[in-house]
Amino acid sequence: MLRCDVITLFPEMVTPVLESSMLKRAREKGLLEVNVHNLRDFTVDKHRVADDIPYGGGAGMVMKAEPILRAVEEIRRPYEQTGETVRILFPSPQGRPFSQAYAHDLAADRRRLLILCGHYEGVDERVRLALNPEEVSVGDYILTGGELPALILIDAASRLMPGVLGDPSSIVEESFAEPLLEYPHYTRPAEVRGLAVPDVLLSGHHEVIRRWRRREALRITYHKRPDLLKDRQLTIEDQQMLDDIIREGVPGAPVPCGEER
Ligand SMILES: C[S@@+](CC[C@H](N)C(=O)[O-])C[C@H]1O[C@@H](n2cnc3c(N)ncnc32)[C@H](O)[C@@H]1O
Known about the structure:
39% of the residues lie in helices and 17% in strands. By secondary structure, it is an alpha/beta fold. The model has no long low-confidence stretch (mean pLDDT 94).
């Protein structure tokens, strides 16, 4: 079971996602537990203030350290009393890039995940100094808050928990399970606006379908993310398919002057 606590100023950004689709089902099946805590509940003043202007001036508001530190202490105290340990994650554009391997690492961890969502200009630096959280980035861009990254972490990790997905083979086959993008999918009807399903998928011949999917995965990776194939040890079958894909070139691409297709 994946156990998480999320500390946020905006619980309403987080809970609807947890109440939808696969995450809802995972929670109902007892495979995922997420407690969403409103940071304002850990303030002590009448107005429940959790942010303030930055020292030194500048735009935006900074989240105060004390309510976050208090929240972390109060949330983790009962867990630690029962011997559970807590892994503190802080979504931050300065963090380690999130990836499928990172998601596997979270899913395999027996510790509870405690996710601190920053917002506004960010969080008072003393939170980082006091807690030394694990900073994790969901990409080289700036979001308004850590709520979407928190959901990304929970979503990616929880679907790796045994029993969350109906068919566990999806995890093995999908993009990044191995560093290869996934083959294309088709569903009924067999023809949509003149576009037909590749015949091979209607053949019922499992080995031919497997080979077609493998080649498509290699072809898509070669064209969209060639970096994933760099320095990669390929099987003989994969290498033969890749050589063939390279010979084939990009379908529809203009033929360079003086070359024959
Ligand atoms: C507007 S951002 C603060 C950005 C900060 N002023 C900076 O320039 O690095 C507010 C919060 O959103 C979260 N956040 C924004 N972008 C993120 C990203 N790419 N990955 C993870 N968390 C992010 C962090 O929790 C951050 O504290």
